[in-house]
Sequence to fold (346 residues):
Amino acid sequence: MNEKDLVILEQYDLHVQSTRRGRGSFLCDTDRGLVQVTEFSGSQERLFFQNRVLFFLTERGIRCDLLLENTEGNLVTSDRYGNGYVVKKWFSGRECDTKSREDIVGAVHYLARLHNVLRLPEIQEFQMAAAQTDEADPAEEKKIRKNLEYIAEPLDEEIERHTKELKKVRNFMRTRKKKTAFESRFLELYPEFMAQAEEVTRRVCVSSSHALHRQCIRERRVCHGDYSQHNLFFDREGAVAVNFARCCFDVQISDFYQFFRKIMEKQGWNQKLGMEMIHAYQEVRPLGDAEFENFCIRLAYPEKFWKLANHYFNSRKTWIPEKSLQKLEILDMQEKKRREFVKFLH
Fold:
């Protein structure tokens, strides 16, 4: 988006005082405080669900960004070319510092508090969704989730899909006559990581993960969906989470796992810090056996290897950034410590 797109603010009850660029957005100081303007191309259903979650949190005193309605009462505003935009209440704090122990522990405590609150009320629409998934066979359940974008994919299905995708990428690379340095290195590392992927795939199939997923839908438990250092600010009043665009019904430990994995990768799989993060979460929200098992399964899967494969497969093959190879080498260097930590947890 560019500055001329800010004319859409004329459709809001706001007086703009100044503007500046943010991360893929514009930040505007207004008479109603700081707001963020971003492009929107998602579905109305997901936006409606997101707005319910944000209002639910705001009503309970949890600070978060909030979608603003335009003068016509709509959440999405279109420009003259039909491009959609959303305007959100925003915050001027700093991002979570992944090198700061204080920030990391604070982020974990905040997430656990968020999860304690994020259980939506018994609204008929959500009750019907839970009943449908509970009563459906596996094939029908997938169809229901596809229609209801705010229900996440169960862990067993996600891991099985990722493992199939790894094989697909390997098979594609094998057919290429002139391989890049990234492709050659990926194929060298593939047997070790695929062995892990297949082992975890077998393990998740006999675990309680699918039953836990259904239980979380019945209990209307919501995840942030993209909890990272980029979506957590600290200001004078404490922590505040933003960018709930991927929020959904799911096993809440998935949020903690995503944040945990990213921090551990940046910290070289420091075992002491890892245990401190787990204890910090459980101080606020103790984990049951099924959720801890779910967390350990997620941690055991070579997700970073899959992410690199997925990024490669969905991008241009004629030119692969040097950064991709660097990430692959860092992954290999850290692998011993990662596996040691996973073994320690078991």
